[in-house]
Amino acid sequence: MLIRLIKSACFIIGILLFFAIPFSSFAQEDIITEPNITESSNTTSEDLSSPEALSYNQPDSFYRAEVQGVDSKETEILGRKVISQNLTMKILDKDKKGEIVVVDNGGGADLQESQIYKKGDILIIVKTKVADKDQYYVQDRYRLPGLFGMIGVFLILTIIFARRQGIGSIIGLTASIGILVGYLVPALLGGQNPVLVTFIASTAIITLTLFISHGFRMRTFISFVAMNITLGLAYGISVIFVYMAHMFGVGSEDTFYLASISNVNLDLRGILLAGVIIGMLGVLDDVTVAQAATIDEIKRANPKTRFKQLYKAGMSVGRDHIASLVNTLALAYVGSSLPLFLLLYINSSNIPIWVTLNSEFIAQELVRTMAGSIAIVLAVPITSLIAAKVFDTYIHKPRDKNDIAHHHGHGH
């Protein structure tokens, strides 16, 4: 009865956090709603009050448009062929639907293959004011239908093969995205403590996703406890690593850009740590649930198995889990930054390798990889120890057909 009450209380806390934290982000509106004026030149108040200045400050408008015709031109500049295009386009959006515009694509610059368009392509074009005249330019290809199609295939396959548990995982994923977008991002931009808001968001995500995806069972509760313990330890290790590597959260151009356009003082080092913690959640979910489920199933198969045997069996499976997931995590981080790694390799002829390795970008990726890997290594014995202790004297109820469908495990 006590354990059931504790599990229910944990889920209720997660639900309350999910519904309460978006409201706390509203308190930040007075901080972040002031217009952000970026000075690109020496502009006076008289300049801002002039009609010309106001025309340049008007917001751009974005439209979907279909290419109706293409007039390509090929010129040679310094022995290099340069392609430019004049695109005749029909706007597809309601307020300007059917309007035909001509867009200069390239303007004499060398176009990449991805920037060369053909008839029938649907693009995103931008209307802007230049000297009181409307001008259009191509921003990008229109990709949303393809992206939504991929998401649809993923959702259908998840529901077909995971069934009710798959639906729960989709709901949990939706809740996680809601917490990140509705609470974490506004709180960070509002200048709140990155560590505090990240732990609040992480607790809500862990509670909701675990219990919604995997149900109200003992193995889920064990996973919940193990994840929180591991996250606390991993955060402490991450802090030590960040200070050891003399990192300040400026290891990429994105962070420089974020700091320059924001009208609040952001704690970039704290945001770096927050990103490390959020990046661990998915992997820890996988490891802790699998370990708890493994020991649970061993106990079900042989109710006479005791603590020592349960722990050894769990660690036997866990070692394979560590070996596969550490490699997966490292490759995922490298893969996400592969273009920059290629650029660094190209520049290695001019820059010594030790200088490249010393850069904050490399240090940042190394900290992410090491912190995530350490979290995996710690999660296995922690979860195995808790699960073995709980299931040592635990008496399972007879399994029904619905419970079989909820089984979660990994084969290696």
Structural class: alpha+beta
| Number of E-state strands | 5
Average predicted confidence as pLDDT: 76
Number of self-contained structural domains? 2
End-to-end separation: 36 Å
Poorly predicted sequence stretches spanning 5 or more consecutive residues: 11-57, 404-412
Q: Determine the number of helices (DSSP H or I, runs of at least 4 residues).
A: 14
User: What amount of the residues lies in strands?
Assistant: 5-15%
How would you characterize the overall build of this protein?
This protein has 412 residues and is α+β, with helices and mostly antiparallel strands. The chain folds into two domains: 2-28 and 157-404, no CATH class; 51-142, OB fold (Dihydrolipoamide Acetyltransferase, E2P) (Beta Barrel). 63% of the residues lie in helices and 13% in strands. It has 14 helices and five strands. The chain has helices spanning 2-26, 29-32, 45-49, 51-57, 144-189, 194-214, 218-244, 253-261, 268-301, 307-336, 338-346, 353-358, 360-392, 401-404; strands at 61-77, 80-91, 100-105, 122-130, 133-141. The protein has a five-stranded antiparallel β-sheet with strand order 3-2-1-4-5, with no helix packed on it. α1 packs across α6 (194-214) and α9 (268-301) packs antiparallel against α10 (307-336). The longest helix has 46 residues, at 144-189. The two termini are 36 Å apart. Mean pLDDT is 76; it is low at 11-57 and 404-412.
